[in-house]
TrEMBL record, chain C:
Subcellular location(s) of the protein: Cell membrane
UniProt key word Iron: yes
Substrates-to-products reaction catalysed: a quinone + NADH + 5 H(+)(in) = a quinol + NAD(+) + 4 H(+)(out)
Organism lineage string: Bacteria, Bacillati, Chloroflexota, Candidatus Thermofontia, Candidatus Thermofonsia Clade 1
Primary localisation category: membrane
Protein's recorded name: NADH-quinone oxidoreductase subunit B
Length: 426, 173, 160
């Protein structure tokens, strides 16, 4: 970056040359002591091994203690919301995958739910079950990557290798249903892209029989490990009141003991019919958030087990029969002129949605993921906006937790909040 | 626990002329309010017993170009006590859109408002540090506006390979 | 007891200096630990247990550009990130190589918009492009193998 004379330099007033703003912008963000050279300003990121992407933090340090922390995001701002306005509704699904790349199915789900709510489109039961099943597999996938990288940050290399090994099994299942390991684009408005293959259920069963023992294995490595406890307990504490005021959701909020899970509070896709518990912490520290995610993986396996049982019993269509929004099956094209017309209309112009606006939220692995969809009656979204948990956590929770902590603990804090920068910047 | 109260009735009763319109659509309630009184309205919804919308999920800015009033802001509130949502909407003129900031009501409004400023150019009065959040600080324009181009670059295919190749600014060592 | 004693007489291998140096470069090419977006997750998979990049002498990811030979641009590069990326590239010591991993880094991919640089080759010179969104770990390994082939053809005369 080009060096600009940005700050009045008094004494040893640190290297703030990389800060891209003006002096006035820094006032109020860092304490006045930074301008006299009493405290040091340090730049962490955007290229840093432990910021989980391209997060940049401007830290004000008093010795090794963080006095204040100013996040600077946008290094991965992709313009997804703007770009989706230029695509038809169905084309835009591919964009949502790339937003939170550890939770692609969840992003598909929230966008499809918004379309379905706006169009009042029905989703057959079989599709709902598969969606729940895959959403929970995605949660496991995301938590595994989180566990691996979080442990890697804190110096536990072997957990990373174990977690990635199990993750490959999940990715194989994704590849089986959608043809892609990560960016599946499998959920479509009204149901699924296609029915699950016959090998799907045996593969999922093999996974849920194998996986709980592996979670136990991670737990034996970490839960009672004195080194791990020293690095995590009592670090990055956030009170329930602060967590709500700063907009925390998901495991970050539940770590402080607030019982709020959208799957329970405002159920979607039939989550109210599944038996599962919402693990809660009490101290709001890094360890509690870690422990909650470990328990969540077990709960996800529980949900998947119920979903597989139901899926075996439930036949029927895998997507809605509403031809206005959902393309006809290939076999009908040879027989019905109407089907050809629908097919042609849907794959050229796309469908149009009634004018209006909806707001749908789901529980992503990181917290509340919401989609605001506004339609002007045309075949493209008028405005799509995603309320992403990482954005709120990066801007609110991390600076709050970092205040007063040691700089070495900052890595633990960032890891425990589980941010994904693609989710954050969109 | 206080029984849940109807936000629309209560708002009409207490806020009177600040409530401009109420829209029910797909089971979602939208209350359109006067932008200059947004802080008062938000405080009312957060603090009144029986409503208690203590959680601000999201602030979304919408551009209705070329319609006037051009901009809209949607405040998505959530009541953890009664597990229900509410949308508060304000409309702003296309020319110099500004309104008071609600950071005094919810801390989480801080970065949501910064995003609305960065993407749409809506100015929030009284915001502690209103600056760009996603785009570089020297960026011109507000990308999410409808009159801002998507920034389409010519796509390279086999038929125009040479032409694009000639114009493409390749990096040097 | 030295290596010769353990392994027996290894004899003498004659080769050219070029081939020896290029062999050394390919067998210990340290990539920079630098992930941008989705592809970084696949890069992590490539590193991890199943695909195991250390088979190619590349398990050592360096977080500092000063210690790395290879930059894998894993993900979309935004206009805000572009100057940072170029600075990182300038900080790497010669000889340095760049793999553009994924469609977004190679040509902008599906994001043809205001925020994304349409191909990282506008910022840094790229040696190997890997297609895919995101590429499978096998594809990335193939890209690295292709880069190795390229390194093996380097001539001493060109280094000066």
């Amino acid at each position: 970056m080009t060096e600009r004379p940005l700050l009045e330099r008094s004494g040893h007033s640190a290297n703030i040359t990389e800060w891209e703003g003006t002096v006035q912008e820094l006032r109020g963000l860092v304490s006045p002591r930074a301008f006299t050279g009493e405290t040091m300003l340090l730049n962490m990121g955007p290229q840093h091994p432990s910021t989980h992407g391209v997060l940049r933090l401007l830290l004000e340090l008093d010795g090794e203690t963080v006095v204040s922390c100013v996040p600077d995001i946008g290094y991965l701002h992709t313009g997804i919301e703007k770009n989706m306005e230029a695509k038809t509704y169905e084309q835009a699904i591919t964009m949502t995958d790339r937003m939170d790349y550890l939770n692609p199915m969840g992003n598909n789900l929230v966008y499809c739910l918004a379309i379905e709510k706006l169009a009042e489109l029905d989703v057959p039961e079989r599709a709902q079950i598969v969606r729940v099943l895959l959403a929970e597999l995605t949660r496991i996938n995301s938590h595994l990557v989180w566990l691996g990288t979080h442990c890697l940050d804190l110096g536990a290399m072997s957990v990373f290798l174990y977690a990635m090994r199990e993750r490959e099994m999940v990715l194989d299942i994704f590849e089986m249903v959608s043809g892609q390991r990560m960016m599946s684009t499998y959920f479509r408005p009204g149901g699924l892209w296609r029915d699950v293959p016959p090998e799907f259920i045996p593969a999922v069963k093999a996974f849920i029989d194998y996986f709980p023992a592996k979670v136990e294995e991670y737990e034996t490595l970490l839960v009672n490990n004195p080194l791990w406890i020293d690095r995590t307990q009592g670090i990055g504490v956030i009170t329930p009141e602060d967590a709500i005021a700063y907009g925390c959701t998901g495991p970050t909020l539940r770590g402080s003991g607030v019982n709020w899970d959208i799957r329970k509070a405002m159920p979607y896709m039939g989550y109210e019919t599944y038996q599962f518990d919402v693990p809660l912490g009490e101290h709001g520290d890094v360890y509690d958030r870690f422990y909650i995610r470990m328990q969540e993986m077990k709960e996800s396996v529980r949900i998947i087990r119920q979903a597989v049982e139901r899926l075996e019993k439930t036949g029927g269509p895998f997507r809605s029969q509403n031809r206005k929004y959902v393309p006809p099956p290939r076999s009908e094209l040879g027989r019905s002129m109407e089907a050809v017309i629908h097919h042609f209309k849907l794959w050229t112009e796309g469908f149009s949605l009634p004018e209006g606006e909806v707001y749908v939220s789901i529980e992503s692995p990181r917290g509340e993921l919401s989609c605001y969809l506004s339609s002007d009656g045309g075949n493209r979204p008028h405005r799509v906006h995603f309320r992403t948990p990482s954005f709120v956590h990066t801007m609110g929770a991390i600076p709050k937790m970092a205040e007063g902590s040691m700089i070495a603990d900052l890595v633990a804090i960032i890891g425990s909040v589980d941010i994904v920068l693609g989710d954050c910047d969109r | 626990m206080q029984a849940p109260l109807d936000p629309v009735d209560l708002a009409k009763l207490s806020l009177k002329d600040a409530v401009l319109d109420v829209v029910e659509f797909r089971g979602e309630t939208t209350i359109v309010v006067d932008p200059q009184r947004i802080v008062e309205v938000c405080q009312f919804f957060r603090d009144t017993e029986g409503l208690e919308y203590i959680f601000l999920s999201d602030i979304t800015a919408v551009d209705y170009f070329p319609r006037e009033p051009r901009f809209a802001l949607c405040y998505h509130l959530y009541s953890m006590v009664y597990t229900r949502r509410l949308r508060i909407k304000v409309y702003l003129p296309g020319d110099n859109p500004r309104l008071p900031s609600v950071t005094s009501v919810w801390k989480s409004a801080d970065w949501e408002e910064r995003e609305a400023y960065d993407m749409m150019g809506i100015v929030f009065e009284g915001h502690p540090s209103l600056r760009r959040i996603l785009m570089p600080s020297d960026w011109e324009g507000h990308p999410q506006r409808k009159d801002y181009p998507l920034g389409y670059e010519q796509v390279q295919f086999s038929f125009n390979f040479d032409e694009v190749n000639r114009l493409k600014p390749y990096a040097k060592e | 007891m030295g290596v010769a004693g353990k392994l027996g007489n290894l004899g003498v291998v004659t080769t050219t200096l070029e081939a020896a140096i290029n062999w050394g470069r390919t067998k210990s090419m340290w990539p920079m630990l630098f992930g941008l977006a989705c592809c970084a997750i696949e890069m992590m998979s490539t590193q991890a247990s199943v695909y195991d990049l250390s088979r190619f002498g590349m398990e050592l990811m360096r977080a500092s550009p000063r210690q790395s030979d290879l930059m894998i641009v894993a993900g979309r590069v935004t206009r805000k990130m572009a100057p940072v990326l170029r600075q990182l590239y300038d900080q790497m010591p010669d000889p340095k190589y760049v793999i553009s991993m994924g469609d977004c880094a190679s040509c902008g991919g599906i994001f043809n918009n205001y925020a994304i640089v349409q191909g990282v080759d506008e910022i840094v010179p790229v040696d190997v492009y890997v297609a895919g969104c995101p590429p499978r770990p096998e594809q990335l390994i193939h890209g690295i193998m292709t880069l190795h082939e390229k390194v093996k053809t380097q001539r001493i005369a060109d280094w000066a």
